[in-house]
Design a protein that fits this description.
15 strands; alpha/beta; 6-stranded mixed beta sheet
């Protein structure tokens, strides 16, 4: 499976509409990939809390329309990062959108662990409740978002559901960059799975972003890592290595607590 991570730059000087079209152009340029991944809340900026309500949309809203078309034109599976979703009752969620190569909305995931410690996202958004996997490019992928990375029990549940790889879009701050890379490698090692962790570049509401998107293999080795600026990573993943590593070093079979 060829996977491409778009570490998109997010700047308040660029309109949301313009950034949608720019992101779509980047997706269309990756037509040789099987899977393309965008970051968390790249339309508005993960830390731009004051803009959440104004930019909230439904899963079939303007971002979905642009991303569905880009996935179809590129012929790729597209994890379009996440958007601020407004449901029928007016509640907001941090919701990931996954499109098939035909442009159909194949899956959604509402972020379970909200960041903010009683402010920001933790107050403004409702929590998702369902761990989610999706079968794409002959691989079962577990979905998580940013702060979810700190909660290993979620990833265990995704492994139990058959996940061989995890896709983690994020808006991770620069001041905790070392945690980002450490946790991505830890989730790969302990679950013997690929981790595709896609962050943003730029600054959201005064919060500098970590960048350093990375792809980690099931043995914990970093196959590719971005710098701090906008960048695209493209990596060929041998998904058969997941089963091989789990067979050769069967640590998951020794689990006791569930």
């Amino acid at each position: 499976m060829r996977a491409s991570l778009i570490q998109l730059g997010v700047d308040t000087d660029e309109s949301v509409a313009a950034r949608r079209e720019r992101a779509a152009d980047l997706v269309r340029g990756l037509g040789g990939s099987d899977l393309v991944v965008l970051p968390e809340l790249w339309t508005v900026g993960a830390f731009a809390y004051k803009a959440y309500a104004a930019e909230a949309e439904t899963p079939d809203g303007p971002t979905a329309a642009v991303m569905a078309r880009a996935a179809r034109e590129a012929g790729v599976w597209l994890h379009a990062g996440s958007v601020v979703e407004r449901d029928a009752e007016g509640r907001l969620y941090n919701t990931s959108l996954i499109f098939s190569p035909t442009g159909e909305l194949a899956a959604t995931y509402r972020k379970i662990h909200r960041f903010g410690f009683d402010e920001g996202e933790a107050v403004l958004m409702a929590a998702g409740t369902e761990p989610t996997t999706v079968r794409l490019a002959d691989t079962t992928v577990g979905l998580a978002t940013c702060y979810d990375l700190r909660f290993p029990e979620l990833f265990r549940s995704l492994v139990d559901a058959g996940a061989e790889a995890f896709v983690v879009p994020a808006g991770w701050p620069a001041r905790r960059r070392e945690h980002w890379t450490l946790l991505a490698r830890a989730r790969a090692v302990e679950n013997q799975s690929y981790v595709l962790a896609c962050g943003t570049a730029g600054t959201h509401a005064g919060v500098e972003q970590a960048g350093h998107s990375l792809v980690v293999d099931p043995w914990g080795e970093v196959l590719a890592e971005a710098g701090e600026q906008e960048e695209i990573l493209t990596v060929d993943l041998d998904v058969s290595r997941v089963a091989k590593i789990r067979e050769d070093f069967p640590a998951l079979k020794d689990r006791v607590l569930r």
